[in-house]
Amino acid sequence: MKRLLALLAVPAALLLAACGEKQEAVTASSGTQSLTVMLDWFPNADHVGIYQARADGDFKRAGIDVHLQVPSDPASPLELLAAGRVDVAISYEPEVMLARNRDLPIVSVAAIVQEPLTSIVSVGSKRIKTVTQLHGKRVGDAGIPYQHAYLQTILAHAGVPAGSVTETNVGSNLVPAMVSGRVDATLGAYWNYEAIQLQQMGKHPNVIRVNKVGVPNYDELVVAVRRATLTKHPDEIRRFLQAMGGATSRSATTRRPRSTT
After folding, report:
1. How many CA atoms lie within 13 A of 203 on its CB side?
2. What are residue 223's DSSP bridge partners?
3. Which CATH superfamily does the domain covering 2-114+220-254 fall into?
4. Parallel, antiparallel, or unpaired: how do β-strands 221-226 and 88-91 relate?
5. CATH: 4.10.910.10, 3.10.450.50, 3.20.20.80, 3.40.190.10. Which one for 118-212?
6. Predicted local confidence at residue 10, as pLDDT
7. Can you tell me the distance from the alpha carbon of 126 to that of 163, in angstroms, rounded to the nearest whole number?
């Protein structure tokens, strides 16, 4: 938990869950409900509100017993949510839109991070400072479909032929793939997490934020639930969001954020 909080690097405004902005007392209606929550990725600074709420007892006071799960595949949380294997999934706005386009019965109910964090990151002698420098390079991503669309959009925006760039799925191993030289850059690393991790490792990362090179603004992380859950248990979801939002606010105001650009 201490390491997670030490890496907190998102400005406070980005981390406030929409339902957490309204200041209300969060109390349980009756009994305790169990809620299985799947993260989008391994635990990191973007999940600080969830872990803070659990550590400080916010969820307990709200009558919610939160069970956290970490996906083995970053592309799987919404599929598991739609299948009823989890109650809540932290995911990415583009992923939710694609899932809804496939008629999956899910909806987003709050935004945790309200601007893009996804970036093109490179290190060492391969520090790529412009998109045109991706010509002839290897770019790793997490294998999430919309990241492929991002790369195609970014290359087209810069006039770089898509066929001149080799795209490689490295899963969650974005940092190892860069450090080992398996890829020349990654698209999917966050400017507030992996870039800072690389900086702390002395790798001198270069960061190109995707929304600065052709990708429209969007909410990086959102909270998604099934439509049926929202219909049958709206109060439970509301209490979860309020508890998480309150804990996020406390974390954001007690620690000085920092970022790398």
Report:
1. 25
2. 90, 110
3. Periplasmic binding protein-like II (3.40.190.10)
4. antiparallel
5. 3.40.190.10
6. 39
7. 20
Provide the residue ranges of all domains of the chain, joining segments of one domain with +.
Answer: 2-114+220-254, 118-212
Q: Do domains 2-114+220-254 and 118-212 have the same CATH topology?
A: yes
DSSP code per residue over 59-124: HHHTTEEEEEE--SSTT-HHHHHHTTS-SEEEE-HHHHHHHHHTT-SEEEEEEEE-S--EEEEE-G
In this prediction the pTM is: 0.80
Q: pLDDT tens for residues 57-108?
A: 999 999 999 999 999 887 789 999 999 999 999 999 999 999 999 999 999 9
What average pLDDT does the segment 134-140 reach?
97
Q: In this predicted model, what pLDDT tens digit does every residue of 11-67 receive, in sequence order? A: 333 344 344 444 445 555 557 899 999 999 889 889 999 999 999 999 999 999 999
124: exposed, middle or buried (Cβ count in 10 Å: 0-12, 13-18, 19+) = middle
User: How many alpha carbons fall within 13 Å on the CB side of residue 220?
Assistant: 23
Take residue 247 and report the two structure tokens written for it.
Answer: 């804990």
